[in-house]
Amino acid sequence: MSLLERTFASLRDEHRAGLVTYLTAGDPSLAASGDILNALDRAGADVLEVGVPFSDPLADGPVIQRASERALASGTTLAGVLDLVARERRTIKAPIVAFSYANPILRMGLATFTRQAAAAGVDGVLVLDLPIDEAGLMQGELSRAGIDMVFLLSPTSTTDRIRKAAALGRGFLYAISRLGVTGARDSVARDAKDLVSRIRAETRLPVALGFGVSRPEHVSEIAQWADAAVVGSGLVDVIARHGRSADLVARVEEYVRWMKGR
Amino acid sequence: MATRQIARFGRRDPDARGYYGEFGGRYVPETLATPIEELAAAYFEVRQDAHFQRELDDLLKHYAGRPTPMYEARRLTEAAGGARLFLKREDLTHTGAHKINNALGQALLAVRMGKRRIIAETGAGQHGVASATACALFGLACDVYMGAEDMERQALNVFRMELLGATVRRVDAGSRTLKDAINEAMRDWVATVRDTHYLLGSVLGPHPYPLMVREFQSVIGLEARSQILEQAGRLPDAVVACVGGGSNAIGIFDAFLTDRDVRLIGVEAGGEAIVSGRHAARFAGGSPGVLQGTRTYVLQDAAGNIEGTHSISAGLDYAAVGPEHAWLKETGRADYTWVSDADALEAFQRLAKLEGILPALESAHAIAYAGRLARELGDGQIILVNLSGRGDKDVQSVAKAIKGA
Prior knowledge:
heterodimer; A: nine-stranded parallel sheet; 15% strand; B: 405 residues; alpha/beta; four-stranded parallel sheet; 14 strands
């Protein structure tokens, strides 16, 4: 069993839903990202998504776009992100999922990326613009290295695509709550629950729901019918506002506890 | 006169997953995957639907003004001193560039699919104007994304789009040019895909766009091939076109692909110099990568981030090239070269003074290279140049560049 599988299995045993957190690595610096990842882990985040900044993040809303710009300006590359994971892996309990666009990975080369990600201790990989149809090669390579490939599903995904994602995906499936780019919203979309139940009908893989999750009540609502809620832009916004201040780590821990309703 | 009926089905199509060799594909966020499959299904249906094709032919003829003329530029030929130069006059279409061919085709398809709203990106503004025009014609809502820098240098086209009833949405992200406009259009589409069609303007993006846009633009080559046979009595020795995304080039190349003796030459923007950030010559400074839905040649750094580009012409100022061009390059069927800002500017003025034609700055790149090639090939040879658009939109930029020089 992979660490992602064990994590979701114990969440089910404990009858609680998990919290998945996203940050853009290198915003404001890779050193700060290391501190934040440890803080998230201590505060009880169940899965850590580590975003690889990319020059053209076309699936992201303004908050994560700005974070990518700051991370690129601080000199962050995919290689740097893998070094970060390698450095912090020993002190972090939660599984780490690398969250990237396709081009940085393809530029590094699939074989090199897989080798270095495995060596760094990356547990899962999610590629935003690599849908199931294009992902066969990467999934095979990652799987042989013991890394779970995680797929996104959307309210527009057909049953056929849900089945394919369930067959190819490992660890968990990431359900997108609504059409649109990443970013905080006021409420959980009605499409979301329907999508999760359509996924449940096809697979026993855990389902984490994200996009637009920004308040504790969203998390507790999602907890009733999904295995985990993903918070991205909300946390990235906290980092943007406190990135340079001395109490960044405390703010992040406080944010996670607030989202978890503790 | 050739009609679009001649060669419509199944030629040189990409494979079922949209690949031309190792280029192309469908690298999109999951939300777009199913809608794009639906778009492909709808497109493949109308591709074989005689009624749709008649409707489009009719619009191209009576609304867009096709066929466009083929003109032998004798004074330009004389000045170049060598091969005869023929110009395919896409600048004479309604709205002033080849972009209308694709805009009418896709808008007609969008209506078929029951979409009520169109989004489009634009660089030089010609595709934005063509999209706004088609939307006015069909009564569709239209939002056009345009980089802030391009809005400045193509202010006339911004106003034209607004007059046509479109909303121009300013994009301040990144390099504030075409690439960023496409990112923003994609972000809009991911949120609105159920009732909105993305009218992509070039042979870029995820499958089926590169194929669909090529087919809507292939009318250029079909006309040109029969016109040159009629006017020159034989096929040309070379066909020259500028390449941004590459839709006008693919449109004219397509009819000549199986004429193995006809050289096909695409001209990219050499900008100020072939130095990172100062040009848009993907085949000179790029390498295979994935950008905005397709695998093709892109200008990127060692970490896989997309590099900034520069060209005096907004329509060529883009970091990637259509995947079919990458494949034509890789297979050796077409050659790609580049022309600098300065040479394009010179060709712009030369065509104006010698022939009374103001070419778009994009097309001026093709004119500049064709002049060079004419001297190289010498007497008795024939070069066909796609004059993809007219230069009225560029008059201000040209004035600024000449005075600034």
